[in-house]
Design a protein that fits this description.
mainly beta, 53% strand, two-stranded parallel ribbon
Length: 192
Amino acid sequence: AADNIRIGGFDLNMNKAVLGSEAAGHGVRLNGDDVQAVDLIIRDFGSRQTAGDGGGTGLLVVGSSGDKALRPRLFNSCFYPSTVSSTTVGWLWSDVQHGQAGFLHVDGSNKGVGFAHELKNDAQYNILTSLVASNSIIGLGYGQETAGVDGCDFNLAQGVVADATVTAFSVSEGTYNLTANLIHNATGAPSG
């Protein structure tokens, strides 16, 4: 893990359309406490075509070895997933605590699970604000990989716009979350 990292101010093209369907990778993967990502544009990322392969979010922040990643920040960024991936997720925080994310746009997370914005596993006490999802399957999701295990808890999401999105908000496991000011328009949503 690397703590106290700050990145920002760049446009990253993962070039999946040119590299082919078996090229995979997260645009950015951060593992540590007090990591910050600001003013990013991340394009053409996604998972490999091979069934079951992950590794294709625009930005991933994850805890390590049973520890949570503490106090991540993600602001003022846009994510444009690949059109040739079998699964797309705009950005994802897994096992993160006390994070803040806002003013984010994901356009085209429409393959596989198709989460535009996602908290996952044991993400707790995070604040998400001013999220826009367009042309996606799920605007905001709280996911959990292990069925029957409690997932995301005590998170606040406010100001979520889901345009041309199949589902605005989805929680697979989790308790004590609050979502406020959500607008959903499914007109023109992808078929999945």
